Structure formats: C-alpha cells, structure tokens
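Lecture 7, part 2: worked example. A protein chain together with T5A.
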Amino acid sequence: MLEAPQRRQARFITFEGGEGVGKSTQVKRLISALARHSVEAVRTREPGGTPRAEAIRSFILQGRSEAWGTGAEAVLFAAARLDHVNALIAPNLAKGTWVVSDRFSDSTRAYQGLTGGVNDRLIDALEHLALDGHTPDLTIVLDMDPVVAFRRVEQRAVEDGLQLTGDRFEKEEIEWHQRLRQGFLDIARNNADRCVVISADQGEDELEAAIWDAVRTRFPELQA
Ligand code: T5A
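Predicted complex, written out as structure tokens:
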C-alpha cells in the first residue's frame, strides 16, 4: 500500500531590525523563494496582520497612544499580537502553512523594553501571554548602521513624491536608533538558537541569497 506523502511541518519565521533596514523587501522575497520550493507561506506584519491588530497599529503609529506612556504602549502592541497569533499565525501553522512576519515580539523587547525602559518582568509577561507558545522557529535580524537605513527611507520618500515627515518613531534621535540596533543584537545573542544576524548593508539580491542560506541551513527539509 502506498503511504500518503508526509506533510512538511509548517515553520514560523520573523524578521526584525531597525527602521528601513529592508525587512519588508526581504519578507516578500522570502515568500517568493518559498513558493519556488513549493512551500505555501503567508506574509504578515506587526503591529497588524489582522483587522483588529491593524486598528491598534493605526492608533499607535498616529501617535495617539503616546500620552499613555511606553508601558501602556507595550500592552497595546501585545494586545495586537494576541489577536494576530490567535486569528492568523496559529491557524495557518496548524493547517501546514508557513508564516513569515515583518516584525514580532522582539520588536516590543527592543523598542519598548531595551530602549523604552519598560522592565523585563512586564515584557516577559506580555510575551508569555501573547505568544502562548508560538515562539518563532527562526528570527532573521537585519543589522545595519541606522544612518544608512535612514538614507534609504529618505530616498523612498523622494521616489514616492512624499515629504519626509515620518511617523513618530522615525523622528527619534539617531543615538536612540544606535541603542535600538544594539538592543536587537543583544536579543540575538541571548537567543542564539533562534536568531541569525545578517548584515543588511548589501544589495537586495545579495541579501536575499544570504537570508535563503540561513533559512535552508535552519530547515534542511528545504534542501530536499
Ligand atoms: N514597533 C513595532 C514597536 O515599537 N513595538 C512593536 O512591538 C512593534 C511590532 C512599525 C513601527 O512600530 C514599532 C517599530 C516601528 O517604528 P513600520 O512602518 O512597520 O512601523 O516600520 P519599519 O518596520 O521600520 O518599516 P520600514 O518600511 O520603514 O522598513 P523596512 O521594512 O525595514 O524596509 P523596506 O524593505 O521597506 O525598505 C526601505 C527602503 O529601502 C529600500 C526599499 O526599496 C525601500 O525604499 N531597500 C534597499 N535599498 C538598498 N539596498 C537594499 N538591500 C534595500 N532593501 C530595501
């Protein structure tokens, strides 16, 4: 009797890093690379990914939560994440679809925790609550000098014919972004079994190849 082909275990991959390092670009490229290897994957992002979480995204990124303080903002990001996990991430993984997310819980730890001053106990508790065991299988941390990343964001604004007013996070000082960069590197060092740091200061094609190498190394089933 023929055995039914074994379904590959669905994987959860997240991209992290500072603003403008190329996460969105590479998330799209990874989805395409996975499709070329017959892997069905959904692309999502944080904050957001579901209608309810997108509503929280708009509220926060318009600066409307600013007066509440960083601790309350961490709670809002976690509320969005809880819905994202329950309504999108967990159901897709359960039915065998891979999930690739542009930012996830490490962003709360880096932005609100390590650079925003929210204590580890609250960050840990929120992470425990929102993830409910759905820790990423692989986190790609894209790393580069924030000054260079800002130039990319400026260039994008020029190309889009926009004035670079920035959302409220992008108005923060460059020094703050340097600390943020170090925060992501610290998270990667403390979670070396899950995180891979890749220099984002290279062309899109080269970066895509480096990311694909990391993904295939972590998930050898893709080499079959
Ligand atoms: N936040 C989020 C928190 O504070 N806590 C949390 O818990 C979470 C989840 C999200 C904000 O919310 C904060 C963090 C953020 O401040 P966002 O709009 O999602 O806001 O912000 P970013 O994730 O920073 O999005 P960006 O679009 O600005 O940056 P990306 O996605 O890293 O970069 P990308 O791919 O859009 O590329 C930027 C530009 O560079 C070009 C692209 O064409 C584009 O023009 N580019 C390259 N140029 C040269 N070489 C390359 N290799 C390039 N790759 C891309």
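The CA atoms of residues 50 and 88 lie 7 Å apart. The chain has eight helices and five strands. Keep this in mind for problem set question 3.
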